[in-house]
Amino acid sequence: MAQANRSFDVVIVGAGFAGMYMLHKLRGQGMTAIVFEAGGGVGGTWFWNRYPGARVDIRSLEYSFSFSEELENEWKWSEHYAPQPELLRYAEHVADRFDLKRDIVFNTRVEAAVFDEASNRWSVTTDGGDTVSAQHVVMATGSLSVPTNVDFAGIEDFGGTIYRTSQWPHEGVDFSGQRVGVIGTGSSAIQSIPLIAEQAAKMTVFQRTPNYSVPAHNGPIAEDVYADWTARRAEYRLAMKSTAGGFFNDPSEQLTLEAAPEHHATEFERRWQIGGFHILGAYADLGIDSEANKVAAAFAAEKIRSIVKDPAVADILTPKDYPWGTKRLCVDSNYYATFNRDNVELVDIKAAPIERITAGGVKTRDAEYSFDAIVLATGFDAMTGALDRIAITGRGGVRMKDRWAEGPRTYLGLMVSGFPNLFTVTGPGSPSVLTNMVTSIEQHVEWIADCLLWLRGRGAATIEATLEAENGWVDQVNEIAAGTLFPQANSWYMGANVPGKPRQFLPFAGGFGVYREICEEVVERGYEGFAVG
Ligand SMILES: Cc1cc2nc3c(=O)[nH]c(=O)nc-3n(C[C@H](O)[C@H](O)[C@H](O)COP(=O)(O)OP(=O)(O)OC[C@H]3O[C@@H](n4cnc5c(N)ncnc54)[C@H](O)[C@@H]3O)c2cc1C
Fold first, then answer.
1. What is the distance between the alpha carbons of residues 513 and 234, in angstroms, rounded to a whole number?
2. How far apart, in whole angstroms, are the C-alpha atoms of residue 102 and residue 388?
3. How many whole angstroms from 169 Cα to the centroid of ligand 1?
4. Which residues contact 495 (CB under 8 A, 6 or more apart)?
5. Exposure letters 29-63 (e unless 16+ CB within 10 A, then b)
6. Residue of the nearest CA to atom 48 in ligand 1?
7. Of 413, 419, 422, whose CA–CA distance to 397 is shortest?
8. pLDDT tens profile 128-138
């Protein structure tokens, strides 16, 4: 490590989009910062998740940085939903363009961060044994950066190759002629299954819970679309900041049951044909009214039945035990149609659970399947996973993981009481994973950078969320979630995919635009809810 044992204004953990922008922003303010990144390159999510079909589910024109006009002018996206290699190139481009890498230490994991109350500074220790000191720490560790450890019995016995979508080999994988088992049907699986099926001799998909998926209708961005975006970009970028999700999906204000059934049919179909998350905006109450939600669910079920030829397979692929849209919708290219292929079979492991991995493949309660390769697409320990894995110790020797034993508690998803000068980008209690994450990242990075500047101007040593403000915020986050249908799903939003994780709705569901205004009002009121020392 080139800059070992030094002192910084800020230590940033993670070199995904959040960490990169944070570094750039702080440098611009004349602050010293160092970034530690566990991976061997920039890009975070797009560095790790190189599985076939990996791509963004928000349009690339919107899922991209807006902070630099020059950057926007010089980068051109090839497709509406850019694939992972292009997103990684973009991250690399951003890093090079702003000369970020000289302050990023790669292949280095932060293991501990300890606040020293005497000096009001953090000591940050890496797995390389280095310790650096900083006034502030920014955890840009990602909301979906820690895969769940699904330990199937016998996994070490498997004689073929096991691939994890979140740690995909950089050189790619050729499945030609192979018998492949895919375990999981979340977003990563839904993106990769159609492409693996095209290569594999035979593919078996093991599904525990079906997901709702909508077509991307991906393709090149037409010149006139690009020209319009470029001409009106400033206006569009500004408008995005007031949307519920940090992206455009033309939200209707109409209530579902106030519209006629014929309207439902045409409106859902129109939005299905546009593709992506447009369908979420069909009616205003789909996320809060069970009866309205059933109309959307019925439309989705009918779509699955119309695409998948075998009615029994269509039935297994149709979600039945949670409301539509209460898990992040998947955006796919050819997912359902893949189950019409002769070389693809679907196994319902809710009905017949996997008992173990064997030397030759997978054994469920009812049958044994032989594979050359198994792909694990089993999800992430969302929002708290990366923070839990760092020994973060605040005032009084309190560990953040212990403070959060009953579920995460933050003020605005930005700070935690008892942990002064430590910020989380897109942390629990902020809109985060319910949004276009780049929009949320930019908003958080800019809020944190402004805050540090303000502190410096006042000559303040610390800023810290008060317990009162934190309690109030947690109550607000919980109340808003309780008014929605989200808690009815056993989703990763609820922590339900990780055994033993407290069941709590993790993000702020009140909408990005509303949240941003709250954050701005807090600042206008002199950082209300924060104690400054
Ligand atoms: C497969 C996949 C697809 C996604 N698709 C979309 C999408 O379509 N739209 C969308 O809005 N969002 C999507 N997301 C969410 C995505 O994570 C964000 O869009 C965004 O990339 C997050 O950037 P980040 O910098 O906050 O975190 P990440 O990109 O997750 O970067 C965090 C980095 O921190 C590093 N890190 C973590 N802990 C440590 C540690 N202790 N020490 C050192 N380094 C550490 C990690 O190695 C990682 O590189 C997707 C996520 C996944 C996993």
1. 17
2. 28
3. 17
4. 382, 384, 407, 501, 502, 503, 504, 506
5. eebbbbbbbbbebbbbbbbbbbbbbbbbbbbbbbb
6. 44
7. 419
8. 999 999 999 99
Q: How far is the CA of 306 from the centre of ligand 1 (A)?
A: 35
* One-character DSSP codes across 458-492: HT---EEE-HHHHHHHHHHHHHHHHTSSGGGS--G
Neighbours of 457 (CB within 10 A): 8
CB 295 within 8 A of CB 264: yes
Mutate which of 145, 375, 438 for ligand 1? The one with the most ligand atoms within 8 Å of its CB, which is: 145
> Is the pTM of the predicted complex or chain greater than 0.90?
yes
User: Which residues sit opposite 52 in a β-bridge?
Assistant: none
Cα distance between residue 363 and residue 360, in whole Å? 9
Task: Among 17, 45, 127, say which to mutate for ligand 1: greatest number of ligand atoms within 8 Å of CB.
Answer: 45
First to last CA, the chain: 33
Asked whether 278 and 247 are in contact (CB, 8 A), the reply is: no
Burial class (CB in 10 A: 0-12, 13-18, 19+), 528: exposed
CB-based contact 90:44 (threshold 8 Å): no
Q: Which two tokens stand for residue 405?
A: 């034993």
Structure tokens at 495: 């922590």
* 91-122 residue pLDDT tens: 999 999 999 999 999 999 999 999 999 999 99
What is the maximum span of the chain, computed from C-alpha positions, in angstroms? Answer: 69
DSSP for 329-393, written as a single string = PEEESSHHHHTTSTTEEEEETTTS-EEEE-SSEEEESS-EEE-SEEEE---B-TTTHHHHTSEEE
What lies within 8 Å, CB to CB, of 102 at 6+ separation is none
In this model, does residue 4 exceed pLDDT 60? no
Residues with CB under 6 A from ligand 1: 13-19, 36-39, 44-45, 47, 49, 54, 56-58, 63, 109-110, 140-145, 188, 386, 390, 425-426, 436-437, 441
Atom of ligand 1 nearest to the CA of 437: 11
| Average pLDDT rounded to a whole number, residues 313-318 | 98
